[in-house]
Amino acid sequence: MNARLSSFRLAPSLLALCAALALATAGHAHGVTAGDLEIIHPNILAPAPSAKSAAGYMGIANAGTTADRLIGIEVPTVARSELHTTEHGTDGVARMMHVDGIEIPPGETVLLERGGMHIMLMGLTGPLVEGQMVPGTLVFENAGRVEVEFSVDPSDGVDHSDMGH
Ligand SMILES: [Cu+2]
Q1: By Cβ atoms counted within 10 A, which residue in 67, 114, 118, 128 is the most buried?
Q2: 26: Cβ–Cβ under 8 A, 6 or more apart, which residues?
Q3: Mean pLDDT (the chain, rounded)
Q4: Is it the case that residue 24 has pLDDT exceeding 80?
Q5: What is the pLDDT of residue 165?
Q6: How many CB atoms lie within 10 A of CB 126?
Q7: DSSP labels for 80-116?
Q8: Nearest residue to 138 via CA among 85, 72, 76, 79
Q9: What is the pLDDT of residue 118?
């Protein structure tokens, strides 16, 4: 768990993204550009067969001069999708919290990644199988609705629904 917490620091984050991009290049490189925003490798970790929820991640780069804000996520194949952040309590327990939006500052790349901000798919109605592409929509305050496809990436072996909310 401590190894995962360290992903909050910048350098490991960038390394993780680079690793993700390298993986993406080897497999299915994908991303979407919408105005000044670039959505980099949107992905969902393949959940355990019994899991009722799954976490998703991506990088969001803002090449513009004004901030934008991710305010919604829609995935038609699940009951409910939310934006979450992860807070690490003084007791060492990580808890996820629903957030209304995620700020994307100008000139920056915001990473939604393990142990940090993520999208949460709740009420899975069918299996999510590694290699599958899952269509969804990101809703931004300025850029509006951006259609993406989440690739289902290899599981990390954690049942995300076991984490406290
Ligand atoms: Cu969550």
Answers
A1: 118
A2: none
A3: 84
A4: no
A5: 59
A6: 8
A7: EEEEEEEEE-TTS-EEEEE-S-EEE-TT-EEEE-TTS
A8: 72
A9: 96
Whether 20 has a pLDDT exceeding 60, the answer reads no
pLDDT value at residue 96: 92
**35: three-class secondary structure by DSSP:** coil
Distance 127 CA to ligand 1 centre (A): 18
Distance of CA 2 from the midpoint of ligand 1 (Å): 18
| Domains of the chain in sequence order | 2-162 (2.60.40.1890)
pTM: 0.79
106 CA → ligand 1 middle, Å:
26
Query: How far away, in angstroms, is 58 Cα from ligand 1 center?
Result: 14
**Contact status, residue 31 vs residue 109, Cβ threshold 8 Å:** no
Structure tokens at 73: 């996520």
Q: Of residues 159 and 106, which shows the higher confidence score?
A: 106
Rounded distance from Cα 65 to ligand 1 centre (Å) = 30
Among the listed residues 65, 69, 74, 66, the one whose alpha carbon sits nearest the alpha carbon of residue 119: 74
Helix (H) or strand (E) holding 26, with range, is: helix 10-26
